[in-house]
Specification:
Blueprint: H1 11-33, H2 39-55, E1 70-73, H3 79-88, E2 92-94, E3 100-104, H4 108-112, H5 142-161, E4 173-177, H6 179-183, H7 185-197, E5 202-208, H8 225-232, E6 235-239, H9 245-257, E7 263-268, H10 291-300, H11 315-344, H12 346-356, E8 374-379, H13 380-394, E9 398-402, H14 406-409, E10 430-432, H15 437-449, E11 453-459, H16 467-476, E12 481-485, H17 503-508, E13 514-516, H18 521-533, E14 539-542, E15 547-550, E16 567-571, E17 579-583, H19 588-600, E18 605-609, H20 613-617, H21 621-627, E19 635-638, H22 647-650, E20 655-657, H23 668-674, H24 679-693
Parallel strand pairs: 1-4, 4-5, 5-7, 6-7, 9-10, 9-11, 11-12, 12-14, 13-14, 17-18, 17-19, 19-20
Antiparallel strand pairs: 2-3, 8-15, 16-18
Helix pairs in contact: 1-2, 1-3, 2-3, 2-9, 2-11, 5-7, 5-15, 7-15, 11-12, 13-18, 15-16, 19-24
Bound molecules: thiamine diphosphate and magnesium ion.
Thiamine diphosphate binds next to helix 2 and helix 6.
C-alpha cells in the first residue's frame, strides 16, 4: 500500500499507517538533527502504539490528571518515540504554574527542532521541559528504578485515600526497558524490590532486540531474563513479534488481569536499521541512517520517499478517537467522582490537591522540638530523627525510609499509625528499601514525580551508591530529602571503608542541590525546615553519628541563621574580627571552643557557622560581606572532609583544617587526636592565619 497525503485508510491498514508515522517522524527528526539513531523508536513503534491507543488511561487534554496511567521510557535514547506519541496524541502543554494551555506540548515544529538549543525535544526526555514526559531518562536503568517508586506511590495513594465506592487512585505504570536497562544494576535492585512488594500496578516492557551500541547483545549479555524475573516474583509473558498487535494486546491484558505481582512483557523485536538488507546487522547503530538509507526505508514502508515529517490524513483523527476519546471519558468520570469525594471527604481531598501543587499543609511546622543547651549534646542524626518524627505527623504524605539502616539513620517514623509499607499494607509510611541504595534513590525520584514528599537514608559514604539519582533529582528538580548520617571519620571504628572524605565537596559541586550539614541539634531543626520548604531540587542532610554539644543560643546567635546558609554565630566586639573561624556540622563547636579561648586571651575572633554553601551563595552581596568582611583576611576553615573548595572562603592567607587522606579504624577520640580535630589545632591555625594576614 502506497501512502500519499491524500490516502484514507481504515482498520489494520490504519494501524500500520499510524505506526509508520511514528517511525518516519523518528527517522526524519534524527536525520534533520544529524544526531541520534531512530532504530529503537522504529522497532518499538507498534509497542507504543498499541499501548497508548488501546490501553493507556491518559487524557492528552489534561496531562496532569492525578489518576492517569504513567508511561516511562527508560530507554531514553529512544526519546523520539515519546515525542512522536506526545505529538500524535495531542498532549497539551502545561505551564510551570500548572496551567493547562491550548498549546501542544510537542508540536510538529518541536519535532523538527529535535536536539536543538531551547527546543522541547532534547536528546533524552527531560521531565521539566515537555509536558507528558513523566520522568527524566537517559542514564540507563534509572527510568526502570523510577517506575518502581511510581508504583510504590500509587499503592500508597490508593491505600491512603481510596474509600469504599471512591476509588480515586487506581492507575498503572508502564515502562519500556531495553537491553541496557536490563544490564544496569539499578534495575535489578528495583525489580527485586518491586517483586518483593508485589506491585501489580507495574508493567515493564522489555525491548528484546538483542542488540546494544557496540553490536550484538550476545557479546556481553546471555542470562535468561525471563527466569531471572520469575525468580524476582514477577509475572512474565512474551510477545514473539513486536509487530503483532494482537499478541501485544493479549500481553497488556495479561498484565491488567494480574493482581498479585508486577508483570514483565518480553517483546522480541528488530531494531530499525533502515532498509531490510541491513536487518540483523551487527554493526554499531549509534548514528542517523543517512539520506540514502532514509529513502530505502521509506520505500519499504510504502511511504513517499521525499516527504519529510509527513503525517498522513486520518492519523491524528485516529489517535483522537482512540486514546483521546477514551482518556477524556475516563478523566471526566474521575472529575465527577473526585468532586463527590471532595464533598464527602474534604480534608482528604485537600491533601490530594495540596500534594499536586507541592504545597505543605497548614501547620506543617508545628510542635517542632527545640533543644536546650547541653555540653554533651547529641548526634545530629539523633536530633534529626526527632525533628523528622515531628514534621511527619504534620505532613501526612511525607513518606520514606532507609536502605537497611533505619536504626542508624534515625529515619524510622515511630508515632502511632505510621506503619510499615509492605506487600500487605501499602498505606504504611515506613519504607524498607533493603540494602539497595541505588534503587532507593531511583524510587525516591519516582515517588517525588508522583507528588509524595519522599526521604531516604543511608550512611553518607554510600551516597556514592546512589549518586546518579541525586544528579537526576537535581536535573529534574524533584524535592527529594536525603538523610545521610555517619558523615565523617567521626563514625570511628567502622574505619576508612565507611568514612566519607571527598563526598562533601563533590556533592557540593552538583548544580541545583542543597547540601546541609547542621552544627548542632537546633540547626538540625532549621535544616529540616529548609528541606521541607524546598520544592525544586534535592536536599542532602549530612549528619553526625557522634554526639556534639548543643550550643547555648542565649549566648550565641539563633540557629535561624541557617536559613541564610552561613551566619555569624559568635562575635568579638569591634569593627572587624582579627580572625574568622568557620566550620560546618560537627566542627562548629570546635570553633566556638577556640573562640572562647581566644577571647580570654584578648583576641577578637568570630565564628561563622556554615551549614550550606549553596544557600549562602544565594544571599545578596551585602549579607555575604557582613558575614565574611573582605578586609578580614585571617580566616580558618574546619571540616572533617576533603578541603577542596574552602579556598573560596579562606582566601590566600587563610588556613584549612580538613582531611587529606583516608581515615582509620579506631575509637573516635583516638582519631580526633591523630587527625588533629581539636581546639588546639584550631587555635594554632588561627594564630598562623593572624600572622599571615599582618
Ligand atoms: C548508564 C548509561 N550508560 C551508557 C549509556 C550510553 N548508551 C546509550 S544507548 C546504549 C545501548 C543501549 O542498548 P539497548 O538498551 O539495548 O538499546 P537499543 O540499542 O537496543 O535501542 C548505551 C550504552 C547510557 N545512556 N546510560
Ligand atoms: Mg537492545
Amino acid at each position: 500500500m502506497a501512502v500519499s497525503e491524500q490516502t484514507v485508510v481504515t482498520g489494520k491498514q490504519l494501524d500500520t499507517l499510524c505506526i509508520n508515522t511514528i517511525r518516519t517522524l523518528a527517522i526524519d527528526a534524527v536525520q534533520q538533527a544529524n544526531s541520534g539513531h531512530p532504530g529503537a523508536p522504529m522497532g518499538l513503534a507498534p509497542v507504543a502504539y498499541s499501548l497508548w491507543q488501546e490501553f493507556l488511561r491518559y487524557d492528552p487534554e489534561n496531562p496532569m490528571w492525578p489518576n492517569r496511567d504513567r508511561f516511562v521510557l527508560s530507554a531514553g535514547h529512544a526519546s523520539m518515540l515519546l515525542y512522536a506519541m506526545l505529538y500524535l496524541t495531542g498532549v497539551r502543554y502545561v505551564t510551570p504554574e500548572s496551567e493547562i494551555t491550548k498549546e501542544l506540548s510537542i508540536s510538529l515544529d518541536q519535532i523538527k527542532r529535535f536536539r536543538q538549543l531551547d527546543s522541547r525535544t532534547p536528546g533524552h526526555p527531560e521531565s521539566f521541559i515537555a509536558t507528558g514526559v513523566e520522568t527524566t531518562t537517559g542514564p540507563l536503568g534509572q527510568g526502570a528504578g523510577n517506575s518502581v517508586g511510581m508504583a510504590i506511590a500509587e499503592g500508597w495513594l490508593a491505600a491512603t485515600y481510596n474509600r469504599p465506592g471512591f476509588e480515586v487512585f487506581n492507575y498503572n505504570i508502564y515502562t519500556i526497558c531495553g537491553d541496557g536497562d536490563m544490564m544496569e544494576g539499578v534495575s535489578s535492585e528495583a525489580a527485586s524490590l518491586a517483586g518483593h512488594l508485589k506491585l501489580s500496578n507495574l508493567c515493564w516492557i522489555y525491548d528484546n532486540n538483542r542488540v546494544t551500541l557496540d553490536g550484538p547483545a550476545s557479546w556481553s549479555f546471555s542470562e535468561d531474563v525471563m527466569t531471572r524475573f520469575i525468580g524476582y516474583g514477577w509475572n512474565v509473558t512474551r510477545v514473539s513479534d513486536a509487530n503483532d498487535l494482537d499478541m501485544l494486546a493479549r500481553a497488556y491484558q495479561i498484565f491488567l488481569n494480574t493482581k498479585d505481582r508486577p508483570t514483565l512483557i518480553v517483546v522480541d523485536s528488530h531494531i530499525g536499521y533502515g532498509s531490510p538488507h541491513k536487518q540483523d546487522s551487527s554493526e554499531a547503530h549509534g548514528e542517523p541512517l543517512g539520506e540514502e538509507e532514509v529513502r530505502l526505508t521509506k520505500r519499504t514502508y510504502g511511504w513517499p520517499e521525499d516527504a519529510k515529517f509527513l503525517v498522513p490524513e486520518g492519523v491524528l483523527e485516529h489517535f483522537r478517537e482512540g486514546i483521546g476519546r477514551r482518556g477524556r471519558e475516563l478523566r471526566t468520570q474521575w472529575d465527577k467522582l473526585f468532586s463527590q469525594y471532595t464533598e464527602k471527604f474534604p480534608q482528604l481531598a485537600d491533601q490530594i490537591n495540596r500534594m499536586q501543587r507541592r504545597e505543605l499543609p497548614e501547620g506543617w511546622d508545628k510542635n517542632l522540638p527545640t533543644f536546650p543547651p547541653d555540653a554533651k549534646g547529641m548526634a545530629t542524626r539523633e536530633s534529626s530523627g526527632k525533628v523528622l518524627n515531628a514534621v511527619a505527623q504534620n505532613v501526612p504524605w511525607l513518606v520514606g525510609g532507609s536502605a537497611d539502616l533505619g536504626n542508624s539513620n534515625k529515619t524510622t517514623l515511630k508515632f502511632e499509625g505510621a506503619g510499615n509499607f509492605s506487600a500487605t499494607s501499602y498505606g504504611g509510611r515506613n519504607l524498607h528499601f533493603g540494602v539497595r541504595e541505588h534503587a532507593m534513590g531511583a524510587a525516591l525520584n519516582g515517588m517525588s514525580v508522583s507528588k509524595l514528599r519522599p526521604f531516604g537514608g543511608t550512611f553518607f559514604n554510600f551516597s556514592d551508591y546512589l549518586r546518579p539519582t541525586i544528579r537526576l533529582a537535581a536535573l529534574m528538580e524533584t524535592p527529594v530529602i536525603y538523610v545521610f548520617t555517619h558523615d565523617s571519620i567521626g563514625l570511628g571504628e567502622d574505619g576508612p571503608t565507611h568514612q566519607p572524605i571527598e563526598q562533601l565537596p563533590s556533592l557540593r559541586a552538583v548544580p541545583n542541590t542543597i547540601v546541609l550539614r547542621p552544627g548542632d541539634a537546633n540547626e538540625v531543626v532549621e535544616a529540616w525546615k529548609i528541606a521541607m520548604q524546598t520544592s525544586h531540587g534535592p536536599v542532602l542532610l549530612v549528619l553526625s553519628r557522634q554526639a556534639i554539644p548543643t550550643l547555648d543560643r542565649t549566648k550565641y546567635a539563633s540557629a535561624a541563621g541557617v536559613a541564610k546558609g552561613a551566619y555569624v554565630l559568635a562575635d568579638a566586639p569591634g569593627p572587624k574580627p582579627e580572625v574568622i573561624l568557620m566550620a560546618s556540622g560537627s566542627e562548629v563547636y570546635l570553633c566556638v571552643d577556640a573562640y572562647e579561648k581566644l577571647k580570654a586571651e584578648g583576641v577578637n575572633a568570630r565564628v561563622v557557622s556554615m551549614p550550606s554553601w549553596e544557600i549562602f551563595e544565594k544571599q545578596d552581596a551585602a549579607y555575604k560581606e557582613s558575614v565574611l568582611p573582605s578586609n578580614a583576611t585571617a580566616r580558618v576553615s574546619v571540616e572533617l572532609a576533603a578541603t577542596l573548595g574552602w579556598e573560596r572562603y579562606v582566601g590566600s592567607k587563610g588556613q584549612m583544617i580538613g582531611m587529606q587522606r583516608f581515615g582509620a579504624s579506631a575509637p573516635w577520640k583516638d582519631l580526633q587526636k591523630k587527625f588533629g580535630f581539636t581546639t588546639d589545632t584550631v587555635l594554632a591555625a588561627a594564630r598562623k592565619a593572624i600572622a599571615a594576614a599582618k
